[in-house]
Amino acid sequence: xxxxxxxxxxxxxxxxxxxxxxxxxxxxxxxxxxxxxxxxxxxxxxxxxxxxxxxxxxxxxxxxxxxxxxxxxxxxxxxxxxxxxxxxxxxxxxxxxxxxxxxxxxxxxxxxxxxxxxxxxxxxxxxxxxxxxxxxxxxxxxxxxx
Length: 146
Description:
Blueprint: H1 8-48, E1 56-59, E2 64-69, E3 72-76, H2 78-84, H3 88-93, E4 95-99, E5 103-108, H4 135-145
Antiparallel strand pairs: 1-2, 2-5, 3-4
């Protein structure tokens, strides 16, 4: 079916919605790329100053902080379960646990200036596959946007 087969009012509403979705998708794509680049800059600085897992870098001026976080991943070995016969003890034996890749989490600082995390799934950005930018280029881009 095509939108021109719809009643005029419905066609206009749907086509306006399509246009809005397209515009939003483009803005989100650009914003995501900018966030990845900015997060890569933060990661580079954190690596330069050698912060470790659990440590953070806070900016009182902008009210944000970046923290080095790393989770754990676990999976069950089906072969081990099949060979051993599935009791709780066997499930424990069949569980393989490994560290996930480190990533940078940027969150707002609370009203009492204590750092707090906003834990919304999917808001952290992994920067391990993104190119680094120089601080000079970052300053020039930030001064263009302010």
